[in-house]
Structures are given as structure tokens and as C-alpha cells.
Amino acid sequence: MARRTSRLSTSTTPAHADVPAHDQPDDTMSLDLPEQLLTPENSRSETSSNNENASTEEKPVPRRRSTRAVRASLQKAETLDTSVEADGSTSSTSQAYVESLANAKRTRSSLRHSIAVMESSLFNGTAHPDDDTMIDGQAMAPGTPVSKSSQEPQAEDMATSLQQRTLRKRVEKKLAEDNETLKVKAMPRSNRHSVRRSTRQSIIDKASDLLGRANSVLGKRSRGLGENGKEISRRASLRPRNATPVKEEAPAPAPEPAAKKRRVSESDLSKLREEENKTPSEEPTAPASPPRSRPKRWLAHGLYTGQEPSDSPPKQRRSKNSAKSSSIPAQRRLIPMPMFAGSRMINTGRDYVLPFDIFSPLPPGQPKPDEWRKTNKNVFVGDAASEWKANKKLELSTCMCEEDTGCDENCQNRYMFYECDSGNCRLGPECGNRNFNELKHRTKAGGKYNIGVEVIKTADRGYGVRSNRTFDPNQIIVEYTGEIITQFECERRMRSVYKNNECYYLMYFDQNMIIDATRGSIARFVNHSCEPNCRMEKWTVAGKPRMALFAGDRGVMTGEELSYDYNFDPYSNKNVQQCRCGSENCRGILGPRPKDKDQRAKLEEKTKVTGKTTKKAIGKKRKITDAEGTVLQQGKKKRKLLTPKSIKAGVKKAVAKATTRGKTTTKKTTKTSATTGRGKTAKTVKLPKVKAASRVKAAVRGGARQKGKSAKVNTVKATPASPNKGSSSSLKRPSAETKKKILARAKATDGGSPKKSPAKSPAKSPAMAKKNEVKSPRKPTVRKAPTKSTVKARMPISKARKSGPASGPKAKKSLTSSVKSAAKSVVRTVRGKKI
Ligand SMILES: C[S@@+](CC[C@H](N)C(=O)[O-])C[C@H]1O[C@@H](n2cnc3c(N)ncnc32)[C@H](O)[C@@H]1O
After folding, report:
1. Sign (positive/negative) of CA torsion 571, 619, 803, 481?
2. Verdict on whether the full-model pTM lies above 0.90
3. What is the distance between the alpha carbons of residues 514 and 505, in angstroms, rounded to a whole number?
């Protein structure tokens, strides 16, 4: 024991003596002393020596004045402490030793040694197990026998050990404080407050580090720690989810420069987090954008929310700009309310019409006839213009319809085939008798639908016309236009220009004028049918006659071939042409069926002989092969050319026959025409009409003025609009009763009050009465002109309507005669085919 005591004194004395010389930290000194004193081996030996001192001497061991940390656990050794305190020299020696140690430990190397001591002690739990295996700094095998004194320490040994530990603690504490002081001094002042930590922090950090190293497999996780932050990110997965991710944070402050690479423990991370929370503005980290999250929209009232009833049809497309600019709140259009769509259909909708292309059986670009030169207007040629001017004043009429009724089927103008306009009708848009005006707007708009018709090639009748849309009953379809020529001009053309033609597109027009549609509208291609879906009508529009094709009473569907009854008058059986319309009630020939039985028998014989028209064939559809055969046969047949002489004779005969039927008005004309063969007689015929027309015009205008005044009064009353507004095409023709009424009204006005409007009494003026009667009952009739057997020229002349509106004998007589003379429409075709 003496040896040990001397050893202690010898070992402490030099240290104590060296302290004044090494006030400043000296690495050499600091490295030597701790290794002797604080290594586990030394610590153990010191402990053992203390224990030996305690057992052999009563007060051998220097005493610590304060042992706060271990006092509670060392109650048993209090008696020993008091005995130790009695030895003041020892205590002072030990105190001095502590102070010298503190001064010597102010270097980092000494700190590392201190930490190493602590690590080893913590790793082993206590210092005692070391005593089992380590003796004098050398490792021992577990079964190595040791002395009893070392295995069973006495109370004095325990007290000595505690004093050693307490001493060591104080040394470490002092060192830690010094270390912290150095750190704070090295740091900028602004960060000093955030770096300060308790002296126990380093121990805790080290303890956690050791624990982590012990838990890791062979310390793999410690490799590369802190090099590139991977470890931090790996550790981040172990943190609670609500923790702020470390990835986006600024890199943690570098550890102590001299310190060894060490593991970043949870405590370090928490420290980093604390620092970040404390000084968020000092670090120039980019502001992290919050994650985009679309707010969820909830429908408050269901799918139809936001829809309001509206009469406007839904728009297909809506640009973004218009959507932004419109002040009207946008409606939900994805699933429109059925009730709204239904109400809109009822209020403003129309029947659904399929696009015309669906019914188009033929592709576009049909071959058009080469000889067809198109014109959509009537063109007066030669003397026709001058002759026509002399008569234009006759074509005036005044509408007497009221606003509440509109120009319906009882309209007098309609009855007389006069079109209303601003000059003769005061109704304006409410008027329903402006067919040609409607057609004008349609053709002006253009397009396949508005025009509504196109040329097709039929199987056995040459070209034809097909509808590209639906047409209402009595709706105007297409105008029959061409060159308006005089009879003289017609004869000339027949002799020279058309002498080699197979087809002639000639139709009697008005006032001994003829429309030559060789250069004309598409209407010239419309074929004949015994059960037609259209009709050809002549109207007076703005004082001029015009002819147009109108839909029949059934209307016309899209894709139907248009046809009308030529009512062809062949004049001779020789010129009878076989009909191929295919209708059930087909008459078998183009034109009316012969009334005379003898004529019918002759016709039948003819057809039997030729085999072209038989009774069986009439009214039945023929097969295409038959039709083709016929057409081929037609083409093969040689035709005799028209001679000027024969044409002239035929035309003269036809005109004479036609004009003899209208004796009252065209008597002079026919005579002159028959004798001279020229159309110059028109002037002589029309002169009296011009005179009469001037009177009528004055009367009509007066009536119109008077009517206009009354109309103004009526309009103030705000009468309801006509139910037939804008539906002129769907109106039916005047019925027999209506015609009677109109005629009766006219008759009554003959002896009526003079105060009444002259316009309301057309019979008052004989010219007007005649004119009305002339215009009302007419139907384009086609007749075949009597010609020589070699000539196929036909001069069809329209026949007067059988159901004339004349009620009285006087009116009936004038009506018949004037109609026959005026309603002359001719389709003059030469097919070169004789039946
Ligand atoms: C005004 S053109 C009609 C257009 C004519 N299909 C064409 O190709 O130019 C009249 C001629 O057509 C023929 N045609 C018209 N309808 C017919 C029908 N139902 N049956 C036979 N031929 C007809 C006759 O040859 C008639 O002379």
C-alpha cells in the first residue's frame, strides 16, 4: 500500500509542479498526463490503489469536497467521507491536482481522450466489469483467477472509486465548459446564443452515437455519414411524418473542424430543426411553393342546376372570348333539361329535315347537255320587246285583302295569278302572295338547298329534273325562263337554227309570244307525267307574265323527279308521242287522251303496229331494258329534216287553230297571223287593250289610294297578324266557292254604289274584267301542232280550264274566250319519233 501511495504522490507531484509552467495549453503535456490518469487502465489501477489505501490506511485517499451526483448513491460511504475530510492535506493535494488537470485539458486532444474514457465506461456499463477482465491494463480471459480483494471490493474501496469517478466527472465537466467557451468565442456573436448548450449535451450525443453504432450492423451506417447528406435522407424516413423534410433545408452547420466524422443522430437533427425554426429569415432558402390542390367542387342541387328555360337553340361552339365577354351566366349544356328542349322545339322549332345529300342517289357532277345555255331571266328578243311594252299597263291589279286575313286563298290577286308587291298590295310581309319574290331571295342566297333542283339523267326520257329538298304544296320551285320571241322569230328559228334538233323547248307564253328555253332555265328539262307532282303556271309579276313550276297539292319530297302534265296537243295522231311516265293512270301518250272513239281506235292501231304504245303498256312501268331498247331504237331511226315550208305551214295551222278558240280577244290577231304569217299583228290587237288598261290603271290606283287610307286606320287598331303569314306556298288555290264569291262581288259592284272603290269592282271596267277572267283559269297545255307527216314540230297550245269561275252567262262567255286566247303555253318538242 505504501508503494501505491508513493506512486500516487510521485505521479501527482510532477504534474502539479508543471502546471505553472504550462498555463497556456501544451499539447505535449496534455497528451501525457491524461493517458496516465484517465485511460480505463489507469482508472482501474487508480481505483484499485485507492481501494487498497482505503483498506490499509485510515485516511489515505484525497477527498472530494462536493459529490452531488453520487451522494445519494453513496450513503453507506458517508462515514468514510468524513474520515477522508479530516485529512486536509490529501484533500488539498487532490484539489490542486484537479486544477492542474483542468488547465492541462484545454486542448482538443485531451477532450478526445476524455470522451474516449467516457465511451468505454458507458459501453461497459460500469468500471467494475473492467476490473474482472483487466488487470493493470492487460486483458484477461474470462476464467482467469483474480484476487479476492479485487473481486469483492470493500466499503473503502467503493468510496475511493466514487471519489475517482466524481473527480473524473468534474474534469469532464470542466473540459466541456472550456470547450464550449472556445466554440462560442470562435463563432460570430449573432450565433452564439443559438449554439450554446448544456455540458451534458455532448455526453448525451456521444451516448446516442454509441447506441446507434451498437445497433448498426458492423457500423455500416456510419460510413459516408455526412458526406453528401444521404444518411440524413435515409434517416429522414425514420422520422415522424409530420416532421419537416430535411431535404429542402439548408445544409446543417459543419461539425467541429477537428472532430472526427461522426454519425448524425436524432439529437443533431433535432438541433438542426431547432436552429432552422429559430432563424428562418437568416438562411436564404427558396420559399417552398405550397402543393397545388384543386378545391373540390360540390354540386349543390344536382346535374340540372343552372339551367334556365330558353328559346334560343343551343350553340355548338362557344369561343373562350365570347364566354368571357358575355354577361349572361353560362348555362350547363352537357345534359340539357328535356323540358326546356321540348318547349323550345314547340315554340320555335321546326320539323326535322334530313340533309338533301342523304337522298341524293347520284353523285354530283352529272353531265349537262352540251347545247344548254343557261339563263334565269326572260330575255325579249327582236320585236318581242317592243310589242310587249305596248301591253304592260294592262297587267295591273290591286289587292283588297285585310291584314287580319292576309293574302290567303281568297285573295283576288291570287285568284287571277297576279303576284302582290308593294305597288298593288299594302300588307307587306304579311302578304302570302309573293311567290316569285320568295324564289328571287332563294336563288340569290344560292346553294344546293335554296335552289332546290338539279338535272339528272333518266333512263328512258333523256334528261330530267330532281328536287334537292322538300317543297310544300303549291310552293314555287323554279321559274321557266328563256328567250321571249315572236311567232315570226319562232318560225325563223325553226327553219334555220333548230332544223336539225330533236328537241325543241318552245312554249306559248302570252300575247302570241313564245318562250324559247333552248337558252333558258333548268325548268326546260322537266319531263311530262300523267300523274305529276308539279304544275306549270303563268303569273303576272309587276305587270309582266312569268312562268314557273309549282309544287302540286301533295308537295314534293327530296329526291323526287319533278314532272308536270304537258297536256300536249299533238294536233295529229301522227305526232303522238309515247309516254313513259310510269304512273298507274298513264294515258300512254304525251297529251290528252283522244275523246273520239275513232281517234282512240286509230291510235291503238298505230301503237299496235309500231309496238311502241300498246294498251297494256299504257299506265304500266316499263323495265329499264325495254326502255333502253326503245331509246336505242330511237337513236337508230332516221329522221326527216324539217323544211322551212313545212314548219311555216305547221306553225300557221297551229296558231290559227289556237286563236280561233279565243275569238273575242284575238280575233284580229289570228286572222292577221294566219294571213300574213308574221307577228306584226300584235300591235293591232293590243291597242284597244292598252286603252282599256289605262282606265283600269287609273281606277286601280284610285282604289289603292283609298285602300291605303283605310289601311292606315286599320293598322292603328293593331289587328292581329295573319295566320298565313309567310306561308304563301302552302296555300291552296282558290276554291270554286271562292271564285264564285269573287265573281259575285264583281257582279254586284256593277250596279253598286259609286262610292265604292273601283278596285273592288273589277267588272266595272270591262277591260279589267276581261283581264281577270283571262288570267284566272289557265293551265299550260301542250298540244302537238298539225304538221306534215315528215315534220315532228308540235305547237301545243294551252287549253282553257274547264272549271271556269264564271257564274253568269256573260261572265262565262267572256271568261272562256279570253282564257283561251291568253293562257297559251306551248312545249314544242321534236323528238323525231312518230308513233
Ligand atoms: C321539254 S323536253 C324535256 C326534257 C327532255 N327529256 C330532254 O332530255 O331534254 C320534252 C321531251 O322529253 C321527252 N319526254 C318528256 N316526258 C316524257 C315522258 N313522260 N315519256 C316519254 N318522253 C318524255 C319527250 O321526248 C319530250 O319531247
Report:
1. negative
2. no
3. 10
- Give the atom of ligand 1 at the shortest distance from the alpha carbon of 464: 6
Alpha helices in 125-246 (DSSP H): 128-133, 148-151, 155-186, 189-195, 199-215, 230-236
User: Probe ligand 1: pick from 371, 455, 527, max atoms within 8 Å of CB?
Assistant: 527
pLDDT one-digit tens code per residue, 512-535: 888 999 889 999 999 999 999 999
Whether the complex's predicted ipTM is more than 0.90 is answered with: yes
Residue 424 · residue 397 · CB < 8 Å: yes
Q: What is the pLDDT of residues 336-395, one digit of tens each?
A: 666 666 777 777 777 776 665 565 555 666 667 777 888 888 888 988 888 876 655 555
Alpha carbons 743 and 737: distance in angstroms, whole number: 10
Ligand 1 pocket test target in 829, 830, 833 with most atoms within 8 Å of CB:
829
463 C-alpha to ligand 1 centroid (Å): 8
Which of ligand 1's atoms lies nearest the C-alpha of 517?
A: 1
When comparing pLDDT for 338 and 190, which is higher?
Answer: 338
Question: How big is the chain by its Cα radius of gyration, in Å?
Answer: 64
pLDDT of 674 higher than 90: no
- Between strands 379-380 and 519-520, the pairing is unpaired
What's the pLDDT at 318?
54
Domain ranges of the chain: 2-141+150-184, 373-681+778-822
Could you give the 3-state DSSP secondary structure of residue 717?
A: coil
- 560 within 8 A of 550, measured Cβ to Cβ: no
Q: Is 618 helix (H, G, I), strand (E, B) or coil?
A: coil
Name the CATH code of domain 373-681+778-822 (choices 3.30.70.20, 2.170.270.10, 3.40.50.10490, 3.40.50.300). Answer: 2.170.270.10
**369: how many CB neighbours lie within 10 A of its CB?**
13
Tell me the three-class secondary structure of 595-617, residue by residue. CCHHHHHHHHHHHHHHCCCCCCC
Instruction: List the grid coordinates of 382.
Output: 327582236
Counting from 1 in the atom list of ligand 1, the atom nearest the Cα of 462 is 8
How far, in Å, is the centroid of ligand 1 from the Cα of 578?
Answer: 10
